[in-house]
Structures
1.
Amino acid sequence: MPWTETDVMDQRTEFVLRVLRNAERFGDVCKEYGISRKTGYKWKERFLAEGLSGLGDASRRPKTSPQELGEGLVCQILKLKLAHLGWGARKLRAVLERTVAKGELPSESSFKRILEKAGLVEHRRRARAAQGARLQSRVRSARPNHVWTIDFKGWWYTRDRNRFEPLTMRDDYSRYVLCAQALEDACTETVRQQMIRVFERYGLPEVIRSDNGAPFAACGSPLGLSRLSAWWLALGIDLDRIAPGRPDQNGSHERMHRDMALEVEGKAERDPATQQATLDVWRKTFNEERPHEALKMRVPQDVYRSSSRKFDSAAIELAYPSGYLVRKVGGRGTVKVENIKVSVSMALSGWDVGLEPLSTSRYAVWFCRLCLGEVDLATEKFHAVSSLADGPDDTASPRRVRKPK
């Protein structure tokens, strides 16, 4: 019988010492311990070569493996991961595939194993599915510049204690980041000037998706219109807002913000200028190097194309169907009809609205293609609607023309 399970090392030591004294026949000693002569010679030779340490069980792991990764490749994987903490094994593999020979590139599971051993895998608990019906987005991007998304990334401090809060804009279809720029403030005019620079470079989208916060929306205005979103409508851009408190409805934009938090905010720079330069490098990497699963591991730059709808800085004049009364909204958000002033919305100050006659004292108030509510001259009140509505038909709906320069 072979060595017993208890005190194996003691038995092997005792066996070796007995055979080395040469006082007994080697075969008899082997027979007493229940091992073959071949095994007996193996332990004798190990003891002579390595001493007592040679009597332990050797590892059964192969000395070499065709799947074993070289130290240089492992270091390359970890270096890329540390530079982009938000990237997973699949993205890292897609990036290294560009420079590593196909036969030398490890599998995705090998990437995961390396990251796991290095402690670079964040295990997140799965959120429970929301109960009840989920609000569904009315607009799903089908091509570049169909839907743009916009938001402010939550602010952070640079190391010199300056506040840094980037405005981010992104093409939803291609994931291309159009803007990642810190602004002096979040005021309407500041954001508008930055958007003009983006429009001049990339053209106009068909739809802009935003949340319900300022300056993108205003809670006290009909349909949540703000000065900024009213300008979008006048440019011919439709609005698509997520439901209040539902950032998951703009999930891919939030995912981009999470990458920014890990790779830029998590390594705050000394001052805002240096921080913006770092953010510019991050945006270039995101657009030109980071593969996206939704794009079949292509990069956004390979998919995005500038819009054919060019931005025109000329003043805009809105035209409405014949039969509508056209009134300019005053500085205090009022319109004047038959010498009666009715408050509509400060967000529309300076813009023309179309008043569609409904009766002798009631008018529907239109701004671009949106019906904002009704003006009742009998009560001198404006009653806002709670949902969007399109124009009466394609020929009668309001349209936009340009004022001559």
2.
Amino acid sequence: MITRRNFVVGSAAAATALSLSRFASAQDIDLLKIFVPAAPGGGWDQTARSIEQALRQANLVKGVQITNVAGAGGAVGLPQFVNQWKGQGSALMVAGMVMVGALIANKSTVKMSQTTPIARLTGEFEVLAVPAASPFKTAKDFAAALKTDPTKVPVAGGSAGGTDHIMLGMIAQAVGVDPAKVSYVAFSGGGPAVAAMLGNQVAAGISGYGEFGEQIKAGKLRLLAISADKRQAGIDAPTLKEEGINVELFNWRGVFAPPGVSDAQRAEMTTLVQKMVATPQWAEICKTRDWTQITLLGDDYKKFIEAENMRIEGILKSLGLA
């Protein structure tokens, strides 16, 4: 399983290996178009709007246009990006681990490999949370209910086959429950999942901390555990392992250019992103949202994507989700 330590070490190595001189200087971009294959409010949408904020504040682009196309963890939006955005040099799609799993689970004919990988940007641990009025006070309480009858413990999360679904399956497997029997309620983004939790329509929710953080701090959601390898500064919750649930998981997000872009266009987008992640504005955004920077660029990112596809497909098959 990929851990925070592995990501940070890999990120540092990549940063050392890839200097700014490797790419041509990015030119002024009048309009950067960002495609988000998910509903507003979720992690990918947050990432897109954070990219916009950092680029504008650092004067790296003149304008940004964001397009949202929700559905099936990106399986609905990806064909549109691949076919309709083909060859657009000043365009990026935000996606991540969720899409890898969703494409496999949905047996999509359009693959992530048809895009042009530009950069892995951030990583985030998953969290298990419940409505404030929930009878579950700890992750152990949640696990006990799951073992008693998993069908009576509906859990909200992102699209089927995505990171949140994978984590619930891993929790079930770790506590001796058949993952195929869990009650997983898939939503197109973090916003609708939070709404379902606040409306007590589900027993719990799984997502990145950034998507639940505001409601947790407001006391409307209770954080039970985090999928980290150790407790995290600023997040008042034990790890799943501390609660006797042997699960560790790290979500990641990145950006992709459309297929059909030239080498020069790919280099320009890579340089733009590389400049952005070096800004104090991006560092502050990541700190505020509790995102870990795990920058990986170009061909190294492409190799990472290929490996992730194989890894996640194996996990989904073992959980009966593919």
3.
Amino acid sequence: MLHIESVIGRIPRDLQPEFDPTIVIIDDASSDATATVASRALEASDLTYPWEVLANPLNLGYGGNQKLGYRYAIAHGMDVVVMIHGDGQYPPEATAAIARAALGAGAAFGSRFGKSNGARAGGMPRYKYVGNQLLTRLQNRLLSTDLTEFHSGFRAYSVNTLRQIPFDLCANDFHFDTEIFIQCIRLGIDIAEFSIPTRYGDEVCHVNGIRYARAVVGQSVKSKLQEFGLSYERKYDIHPPDDPYESKIGFDSPSESALDAVPDGSRVVDFGSSAGYLASQLAGRGCTVMCVDREFPRSWVEHPSIEFVKGDLDDGIPDIIGDVDVVLMLDVIEHLRAPERFVAQLVDFCKEHRVRQLHVSTGNVAFLPQRLMLMLGQFNYGPRGILDMTHTRLFTAASFRRLWEQSGFVIEGFEGIPAPFPLALGAGKAADAMLTANRGLIKLRRSMFSYQIFATLRPPVDLDDLIDASRLQGNALTATSNAPNL
């Protein structure tokens, strides 16, 4: 009880006029009369700020208590929330500094490791120091961050940030702090950090270290797996408002394979062209490209040789004028409600427009990690990857081949594509090594180790045209041999 009185006594008295602060103390169904002690301390203090003490009728847990505080801030139109533990371990004196940082960046926290040996000098036990540093390094690697500490309890969030993240879906336990950080990272929110003094006194720690470490690492891994489409957590289904379509040129991908295969100067139709990155590359090689997609992309690459046609392929192929040399349909077929019907329409399209070649691709649902996840009872759709939520049909290498062969298309090339490690890991040695290993495994067994399948097709033979060509060929041969016409 003495700790909360001390914390109240250390709250700065000079926050105004820069801020218009409100003090909210939340008693999480404690058994030590925290609400009563806090109320008396506030009444007896010389603080001039408005204050309120909330007493939960049931224990919400460490994370649940924060959720209540953040909802309070949103409901009352606050600008920024500063969380201060009631045990006195963190410095209320730094309230203004952390509030400024959070308003500028979106989120902020005080790091006990910003200064050399500051944490140990402040009384942090050696085992906590080592554990904290190991967890922080591991989480930095998993989440592509560069923070000095992940586990400080002195935090601040702008209310604008809180409105954009589903923090109510985070855990009620102590690893809530990690989960809400991951949400901020996935949203693209900057996290400001600054050094704070470390103070360990006689407060009792209720955190089970092993359980906590397992939880924070587990959540960091799940967030990373979600980028691969191998896991899905609703609380991490967050993207920046201007999250652009990612270019898949420059490493092993269907886009790169198509770029290599399309001859310079071709007339190309790109079904499902998205932002037009591939079309832009082809236009630079003298190709004329007609891009077809349901909506005009937010990030569009302007080029005089690129035309955009709005069309939903589920409703049929839009009208296109003139002959076409090459058709591209990369990672599109799995989005269609009736792929077989569309492929039948594509046969007529190829005949009408004298298409010479097609390049098509799809995700391979029989990719080994997907098989392993299924064995564990996991079949998790997510915002991207093989189990993208927008996919309506899934294919293995064999079923993808059958889809085209049964409509008369001739398979001229059929290759496995590795997982997009550069997108998940960033360009570098690690991604290159993973790509090399994946390529080797694809050679051993394409159906199991291919993340995607890329096929080069020749349109079905037009029998009417073939009859005419056969007649001409037959006439030529019989004329040469002086044989009578049949």
